[in-house]
Amino acid sequence: MRSVIVTGGSRGLGLAIAQTLARAGFRVIAVARSEGPLLAKARAALPQALHFQAGDLGDIASLAPLARSLRKAYGPIYGLVNNAGIGTAGVLATLPDAKIEELVRLNVVSPVTLTKYLVRPMMTERAGRIVNISSVVASNGASGLSVYGATKAALLGFTRSLAREVGQLGITVNAVAPGFVATDMTLELDAAQRAKIIQRSALKRLADTADVAHAVEFLVSDRAANITGTVITVDAGSTA
């Protein structure tokens, strides 16, 4: 059974990805600060396929030992889904410096560093899948999300260049860019804001976490063996 790491896998989009991959036959290790009730319930339903590893992804110094413990516990790591991140909004002119640093650390430095330590065994095995969760904001922009958009755009550049670095070793590197997805974050929007987003989309609806999870599943699967350095947008046609 191939092992796949999903960061931020205790709830929301990360949990949907973890569950989808587990049901597809992968051994999935969800990494998060704490397990939480939603992941615990999911693990009870998929005891052989879905696992939990505690880890503070914002603590960059802890990522090397985290990678070592994952390899020791689960053997060669076949896949890595860099999903964990934060979506702090704020106009740049008034966004605190600490928030800017936090966004860059969690959304860019953390996934790049964790990938560094987990891609090495993939290179030895000459096989692997890396999927980075970006956002449509990376290419389209959004008012109040300039720093967040910058971090998600950085993941796209990382994806394309790393794909060239490791492609000859049989490792693919791709990104998925969700639009507004029906999660806890969008539930915080008022009815008028949600209606505006839905009206703007070609399909007149919001994408679901399952839609994003299935895109990730495809990229991790053997069916995507010749797809690398690309981005799949999942947004119900909002950017069409």
What would you say this structure looks like, in words?
The protein is α/β, with parallel strands linked by helices. It has a single domain (about 5-235), classed as NAD(P)-binding Rossmann-like Domain (Rossmann fold, 3-Layer(aba) Sandwich), CATH 3.40.50. It has helices spanning about 10-25, 35-45, 65-75, 95-125, 135-140, 145-165, 185, 190-200, 210-220; strands at about 5, 25-30, 50-55, 75-80, 130-135, 170-180, 230-235. The radius of gyration is 17 Å and the shape is globular.
Strand order across the biggest sheet? 3-2-1-4-5-6-7
Q: So what's the overall shape?
A: globular
Largest sheet: 7 strands, parallel
Percent helix range: 40-55%
Q: What is the number of domains?
A: 1
The total count of helices amounts to: 9
Question: How many strand segments?
Answer: 7
Could you give the distance between the termini?
38 Å
CATH homology superfamily = NAD(P)-binding Rossmann-like Domain
Q: Report mean pLDDT, rounded to a whole number.
A: 94
The H-and-E topology, N to C, reads as EHEHEHEHEHHEHHHE
Q: From the alpha carbons, calculate the radius of gyration and give it in angstroms.
A: 17 Å
CATH topology: Rossmann fold
What is the top-level CATH class? Answer: Alpha Beta
CATH architecture: 3-Layer(aba) Sandwich
Structural class: alpha/beta
Percent of residues in β-strands: 15-25%
Unreliable residue stretches: none
What is the structure about, briefly put?
The chain is α/β, with parallel strands linked by helices and 240 residues long.
